Amino acid sequence: MHPKGYPHVDPNEDAVCAGSLDGKYLLAVADGHNGFEAAFAAITAVHDEAGALLELPPGEAAAKAMSLAAAAVRSTLLDRDDVRRESGTALGIAVVCDGRVGVSIAGDVTIALIGKRRAQCLGRNGAFLNVGGPSGAPGTSARLKDDKALLVASDGLIDFLGQGWEAELPTVLDGDPLVDVTRLIELAGQRGAGDNVSAALLKP
User: Fold this and answer.
1) 104: closest CA among 92, 96, 116?
2) Where are the domains positioned within the chain?
3) Is 194 in contact with 5 (CB distance < 8 Å)?
4) CB neighbours (10 Å) of residue 67?
5) Residue 186: which of 171, 199, 176, 174 has the closest Cα?
6) Residue 126 has what DSSP assignment?
7) Alpha helix locations (H) across the chain?
């Protein structure tokens, strides 16, 4: 365990969702702020519709998932009296199907294709999801070539891996995805990240 090095509301404000259906894959990472409510609402919305989302083309699926998450965050924060309305979340969504990956990003989540020598970021960061946040974020699509892995990660991982993380990632990924992603999180913790890291890893 690596204690958080900054003031926080809840011990865990992040969440991860992963699903698969007939060779199609969905990864989502939520990085909550000012409480867990927004992150939980966002990731639950994606989880609950994962089956339907995986029936769509990757870019469309990622954009639809983000719209569902944004609506769930606004509804949760506005309509319930037992939540902190200042809560917000970053959210990264990646959908993989038939050699393509669709992505949509709110906030500062990183989505990266990891090749043999370095990682390449996909998509652009957008506004965080909160009470006054966007209704969604556009989905973009890219071709999967002979890439080693697909990573969706909160800034707690990327920031503390530090400069040169794009070249370092391929050297860390050499086995089982669960082992590799655990190794990445532990490496960030050793460099000072604290327990504020969330990540999902897919090896197609």
Assistant:
1) 92
2) 14-202
3) yes
4) 17
5) 199
6) B
7) 37-48, 50-53, 58-79, 155-161, 165-172, 177-190
Q: Which residues have a Cβ under 8 Å from the Cβ of 112 and sit 6 or more positions away?
A: 119, 120, 121, 122, 150, 151, 153, 166, 169
- Please give the model's pTM, rounded to 2 decimal places: 0.90
Residues paired with residue 102 on neighbouring β-strands, in sequence order = 95, 141
What is the full per-residue pLDDT of the chain (204 aa) written as tens digits? 555 555 656 545 889 999 999 999 999 999 998 888 999 999 999 999 999 999 999 999 999 999 999 999 999 888 777 667 788 999 999 999 988 999 999 999 999 999 989 999 998 888 999 988 888 777 888 888 777 899 999 998 999 999 999 999 999 888 889 899 999 999 998 898 876 789 999 987
**CA 172 from centre of chain:** 19
Fold of 14-202: Phosphatase 2c; domain 1 (3.60.40)
d(CA 67, CA 44): 13
Contacts of 82 by beta carbon, 8 Å cutoff, 6+ apart: none
Residue with tokens 């990472």: 29
Coil, helix or strand at residue 10: coil
